[in-house]
Amino acid sequence: MNNSIGEYLRLKLRSKNISNKEAGASIGLSESAFEKILTQDDIYASRIVKLSELLKENLLEYYYKIEPIKSLILMEKNEHKSALRNLSDKIESQKEVIDSKEELLVTQRKYIYELETRLKK
Questions:
Q1: Is the same domain home to 121 and 72?
Q2: Is the dihedral of CA 86, 91, 92, 98 positive or negative?
Q3: Could you tell me the CATH number of the domain that includes residue 49?
Q4: Are the C-beta atoms of 26 and 9 separated by less than 8 Å?
Q5: 49-106: pLDDT as tens digits
Q6: Number of domains composing the chain
């Protein structure tokens, strides 16, 4: 990642035409104090959350491409895929059970009908 979080934030603010004064006010800082934040490599998460609200986008995505977060997200994604596959397999298995039980019911109904027909004779 070439850009610091401050530079990343600066680019996002400019893309939405939000001034440093507006951004600073959203997190309770003066314009000059906010400009100092834009030079930093680290910004408090609480400030990132407030600025995300201002921009109406998730600024934490900046960290999604940085280790170890990148690996953790990938690991979670793989776990979710595996769990989804397991659930899909279970659903398919249950469908097969239901289908076989429905076949059994149809056969039993035919057999009962046959027996009732014989009894009526």
A1: yes
A2: positive
A3: 1.10.260
A4: no
A5: 999 999 999 999 998 988 999 999 999 999 999 999 999 999 999 999 999 999 999 9
A6: 2
